[in-house]
Amino acid sequence: MTHLQKDNAKLVARVRRLRGQMEAIERALENHTPCGDILQLVASARGAINGLTIELVEDHIRHHVVNPDLDADPARAKGAADLIAVLRTYMK
What we know:
- Helices cover about 75% and strands about 0% of the residues.
- It is mainly α and about 90 residues long.
- The chain has a single domain, classed as Methane Monooxygenase Hydroxylase, Chain G, domain 1 (Up-down Bundle), CATH 1.20.58.
């Protein structure tokens, strides 16, 4: 996805934060942290992965399918905007 190059630094930063979250889970497991605390860490990591996923999918839709902000066909623009909204809701 060459269009991601402009946002590459932001995406790499998100991945680095995810790596930090995964390392925190690993440390918690190694230190026999209570399971409730570990589950909270896992839920946070899952949310971060979902956030990254939706950003990538939305970029893909906008650059390879249809950009709802630029499409001259109002029905297509609305369909793309609705799809993005549904994906954002679903991935939360």
